[in-house]
Specification:
Elements (H helix, E strand, L loop, with lengths): L1 H21 L3 E3 L11 H13 L2 E8 L2 H14 L5 E3 L8 H5 L8 H8 L3 H12 L17 H8 L7 E4 L2 E10 L1 H4 L2 H18 L4 E6 L1 H35 L5 H22 L2 E3 H10 L2 H12 L2 H20 L7 H23 L19 H19 L16 H14 L5 E7 L3 H12 L7 E2 L1 H4 L3 H22 L5 H8 L20 E3 L2 E7 L4 H6 L3 E3 L1 H34 L2 H24 L6 H22 L5 H19 L5 H23 L11
Amino acid sequence: MKVFLKILFILIFIAAGAFVFTHPAKTETNILKAVFSDNSADDIIVKLSGRYSSKINVLVEAETPETASETASEFYNAIDKTIFETENFDTAKLLEKYSRYSKNLLSKETARKLEQNSFSTVEGEAFARLYDPVGFMLLPLNEDPFMLFTDYIKSLGSENPDEFEMNGKYYKFLSLKIKNDTALSPELLNDKIKNLVRLQDKLSTEECKIYLTGTPVHSYYASSNSMTEINIICLLSSIFIIWLCYYYFRNIKLLIPIAVSLGFGMLSGYFAASIIFHKIHVLTFVFSTTLLGICIDYSLHYFIEKDLSKIIKSLTVSMLTTVSAFAVLLFSGVELLKQISVFTMTGLLCVYLIVVLFYPLLKFEYSPRIINFYPDDTSKKFIALTVVIVAAFGMISLKFNDDIKNMYVPSKKLLAAEKLFASVTGGNKQTAFAVVEGKNIQDILIKEERIAKNLDVNNYQALSKFIPSEKQQKKNFELRQKLYKHSLSNYATFLTKDEINKLLTEKPSENYLEFDKNSPFADFLVSENTSVMVLYDFNRPEIIEQNGGKYVNVQKDISERIKNCRVSCVKILPAVFVLVFLLLSFIYKPLTAAKILAPSIISSAFAIGLVNIIGEPISLFHILAVFLIIGFGLDYSVFRAGGVKNSSDAVLLSCATTVFSFLLLACTSFKLISSLGFILSAGLTASYLTSLIFNYPQQEEDAR
C-alpha cells in the first residue's frame, strides 16, 4: 500500500508541476489587491491609487532662479526617457488648437455671470484685462474685444506652475510619470529609481539641492533596506538553525531532508494556488511560507524519536488541526485569505506525506542529546499569571488602525523632503475623486459639467475643464453673442463699425473642440466610458452622488476595505477554534482537546494584548499573525499531548528556531515586517510556555 501511495504522490506532484510550468500564474505585487476584488467598483479604486501613486516629484532648490532652472534641465536631460515622462499641462502648446475654437470657449465663472445677465461685471473684468500692464493678449481685439479667450486660458492654470519662490529660495518642479510597463515591474522600477537617486546625489551641491518624493521613491528605499536586512536575517537564522541541529543531533546531514521536505512543501503549495487562482499575491508567499515552518516540527519529531509508529498519531493530528484551521479561510470572501488557505493546506499535507512515506527510507547515524526542559510548579504559576495579566489588561481597550500608511514609517530624510514639497507647491491638499460614467465622451463631459457647477473652479481638475462638451460649447457661443448684443457697441469704441457688425452677425461654427486620445488630458479617463474628476479639499460626497457621479476618497476607501478584511478575520477566529475543538474532541477526550487548544487561545490574546500595551494599534496584519500563532501553537500542544518520550525536545527546538527568526524580523526598519516579527515572536513564546503549564494524562489520549 505504501509503495502505491509513494508512486501516486510522485505522479500527482509531477503532473501538477508540469501543468503550472506550462500555465504559470502571475504574481500580484499591488498590496491593494490583497483586500480588493476584481469587480469594477474595486478596480476603480485600485487604478486611481496606482495612477496617482506612480509619480515621482523632483524639486530643485537653489539660490537663484537661473540655477534652479539649469539644474532641473540637466536632471531632466539625464533621465531615461523610455521609462520616465514629464507630466504637465503646458497651456502654451494648446493655444494653436484652442484658438481655432475660441468662439466656443468661456471660463466657468464668465459663463455663470453671463447666464445671470451680469454684463457690467464682465465688462469691468474685460477693461481690467485690457489695461493690465503685465497682461497678455492671445487674440486680436477685433476678434476677441472682451479678451474672453485669454480669460478662458488663464482659468486652466497659472502660466508657470512649475516655478516657485519661498523664503528667499527658488524652486523648480518636475513631475515624472512612470510608464506602465515599468510601473508593473517592481524589480525594474527599483533599478531605475536607483539611477535617479544616483543622479540626485551627483547634481546636488551646497548651493543647489535636489529632493525626490513620491510613493515609488519611498518604495525603493523601503524595499532596499528591507532586502538588505532580510538577507542578513536569513543568514543569521540559517547559521543558528545549523548550529542548533548540529549541537543537538551531532550530525549536520539531517538538514538535507529537512530542507528538501520544506522545498517540496512550498512547491506543492505554489502548484495548488497556481492551478486554482489566476494570480497569486506576493503576501500569500510571505504568510504561507512562514507557516510552513511548522513542517520543521514534523522532521524534528521524526529524527528525535526515530520510530514513525510512535509519533504517527501526533503527526497526523497536528496536520489535520492546522489544515482545518486554515480551511475556514476559504469562506472569508477575501481573495488573499483564500490563497493563503490553499497554499498552506497543500504545503502542510505534502510535507506530512514526505515524512510519513519517505523518511523511513533514510539511514542516518546520529545520537541526539536529551534536554527535557520542564518548569517547576512555581515557574508555571508565574508564567500563567504573567500571560493572563498581559492578555487581560491589553484586551480591555483595544485600539485599531486600518490606515495603510500605518504600515510604513518613512525615514527622517524622506519625511523632510515630503514636507518641503508640500509647503512649496501647496501639495498638502487632501485629494478625492468623482468617478463619472457615461455612454460616450460627450455624455461624460455633460455629467462632469453638471457636477462642476457646484465646485469652486480652483478646487478641481477634470476633462471637461479642458475639453467642454459640444452642448456647453454651443451655449458658450450663445452667451458670447448675448454679451455682444448687450454691450459691444458701448464697450468696443476702439473697433470700427464694420468690425462690430461682423462680431454681432457671426454665425455659430459647425466644428467643435473635440477630445483627442493622445492629448495630455487622456489621463482623466480610466476606461473608455469612465472619467475621474480630481477634487481638492472637498468633503461633500452628497453633491457628487446627487449629480450622477460616485465620490471616491482613495485613502478612506482603502482603509475601510482593510477594516472590513480585519473584521472578517476576527469573525472567523471563533469558527476556527470551534472547528479545531470538535476535531480534537473526536480524536481525544473533550478535556484533553480543551487543554490542547487553550495555549493557542491564550497566546493569541497575549500577543494582541501586548501589542496594544506597547501603544501600537492593531491592524489587519496583526490579526493575520494570530492565524500563524494558532498554527504553531496547535503543533506544540498536539505533540506534547502525544506523550512520546522526547517530543518535548522537538517542540523546544522548533520553537527556538522559529522565535529566533521572528525576533530578528522585529528589528527591521520596515514597520509592517517589524510588527509581524514582534507579535509572532511574542505569541509563539507564550504559546510554547503555556503549553508547558498543562498536563496531558496518557489515559486521556486514547482515541474514542
